[in-house]
Write a structure and sequence with these properties.
The chain is of the alpha+beta class. It is built from 2 helices and 5 strands, in the order ααβββββ. It has a 5-stranded antiparallel sheet, with no helix packed on it. The longest helix is centred in the N-terminal third of the chain and has 10 residues. The radius of gyration is 13 Å and the shape is globular. The mean pLDDT is 87.
């Protein structure tokens, strides 16, 4: 997808990175990415072969190792510093 998640773009701007270039580097451009109403988002990172679930501010929260077309339902691990709460369970919902 050519559109970049808003939270990802914010992080790039804050870090002084070129947003489009960084998105092309990390996203494979073929798998869809997903965004909540609050701009939290998920995408598959080709650099490490994991799905990332990021907060609205672009900070990483969870990762799941899966070379799949869509995010896995389970297997999510918190990134360091994200606490020990229950990992998310991903459930697809049709767009309204």
């Amino acid at each position: 997808p050519a559109v970049v998640p808003a939270g990802f773009a914010r992080t790039c701007v804050e870090q002084g990175w070129d947003t489009e270039s960084m998105w092309r580097q990390l996203s494979d451009g073929a798998r869809p990415w997903f965004e909540k109403d609050d701009e939290a988002y998920m995408y598959w990172n080709r650099g490490d072969g994991r799905w990332w679930l990021d907060a609205p501010d672009g900070g990483g929260l969870y990762v799941a190792k899966a070379d799949t077309a869509a995010p896995p339902a389970g297997g999510w691990q918190p990134l360091p510093g994200q606490g020990g709460g229950a990992p998310p369970t991903i459930e697809p919902v049709a767009a309204s």
